[in-house]
Amino acid sequence: MSRGEAFALLLWLLVKPSLCQPEEYKDRYIFSSSVTDIPRVLIPGVTKVYFLSSHIETIPKKAFFENPQFEEIEFLESNVASIEPGALEGLVNLKAVEIAGNPLATIPAGVFKDLENLQTIVLKNNKLRNLEKGLFQGLKNVKEIQLHGNEIDQIEEGTFDELENLERLHLAKNNISSVSTDLFSKLAKLQTLRLYENQLTSVPEDIFHNLTNLKEVALSGNKLTELSPKLFPHKDKLVKLYLENNLLTTLPPQFFVDFPQLKTLTLQKNNLRTLPPVLFGTLPKLSSLSLSENNLSTLPKGLFSPLEKMKTLDLSKNHFVTMSAEYFEGLGGLRELKLENNKIHSLDADVFHELPSLTTLRLAHNDLRTLPGDTFQPLVKLTKLDLNNNPWQCDCNLVQLHSWIVSNSKILTSAAVCESPEALKGQEIKSLNEDQLICPTRPPTTASPTTTISIPTTTPMTTVITTTK
């Protein structure tokens, strides 16, 4: 039961206490804020028990020994600060345990011992600081462990070694600064690994060497400055890869080659300055890519050409000053292009010729002053165009673009406004008349009279003196 469902049931019981409990909740029992101790009595027919906002500070030894039928136990925001060894002893049918949102700082090793049917362990949003080897001893059937939102900064080697059937491990939002090469090496069936929003500065090259079934890896929100070219030896099943919000300055050549199932790839909010000429492979499932909020000012020719299925490309919030047609080679199916918040002051004449399917183009917050009137003509399917917050110079050089804007004003998502000349500042381009778009004329220049002075030339004379003897 989710937290929302549990609180909904509790509210229902409080509002209508005289009514029978709904049939679908007959197997569940909820203890609320009035409870300070765990009742040690048999509760017939109940297999799922929830403690919501209770005042149980300690889960004592054999707390549920009289109720071996329990399959699910949850302590949600219940002030649990400690768990005694053997607290879950006797719960041979337990499948899921959740202790979340409590001031719990430590969990004794072996507390889950002999719970052979346990499949899900949720220990999120507590105050846990370290994980000891032996904590998950003997849990061969556990498929999911959630440890996110704690204060974990240390994980003992071998902590996860006995979790041979684990499929999902959630360690995000902790204080983990390093992980050893072998920390996950025994998790051969692991599909999802979430390490986002930690303090990682590097990831060992061989950390995923034995993880042949990985489908999702989340490393975003760390302090990674580089990635090993051999980081992902098993690429055939990976569907989601999150790398955003790190300190990456570049990426290894061919790093994203041979990922046939990759659907989600995030690279925004890094410090990327340059990219290798060959970075991407075909990636037949990838439809969206964000490189926004980096330090890119140029791109290699044909960088995205292998990405034939790409529908959305985000290059916003970088340092581009111009856009070249060669950047978009091979993106004939692209539908949305985000270029806002750069420093773009010019576009190549044929920059959009490779993008016949584009429907949305965002060029707001750049340094555009004027553009040729045929710039957007290749975009025959364009339905949304954002040109606002550019310093448009509304003079004779804007006549053709003005004509195009007037004819296609319905696709502008916001106003394109003149920055100069002063007389037109603040006015929408589409509202102007063509005769208002003039260039200042220079006054005629008067040539100064030229005086030619002829200077006579004198031919030098040579005197030949002949002498005789």
UniProtKB/TrEMBL annotation:
Record-given protein name: Leucine-rich repeat-containing protein 15-like
Domain LRRCT: 390-440
The UniProt record lists the keyword Repeat: yes
Keywords: Glycoprotein, Leucine-rich repeat, Repeat, Signal
GO cellular component: plasma membrane
Gene that this sequence comes from: LOC115247145
InterPro entries for the chain: Cys-rich_flank_reg_C, Leu-rich_rpt, Leu-rich_rpt_typical-subtyp, LRR_dom_sf, LRR_TM_domain-containing
PANTHER family: ANTIGEN BSP, PUTATIVE-RELATED (PTHR24369), CARBOXYPEPTIDASE N SUBUNIT 2-LIKE ISOFORM X1 (PTHR24369:SF219)
Cell inner membrane among keywords: no
One family name in Pfam for this protein: LRR_8
Signal peptide: 1-20
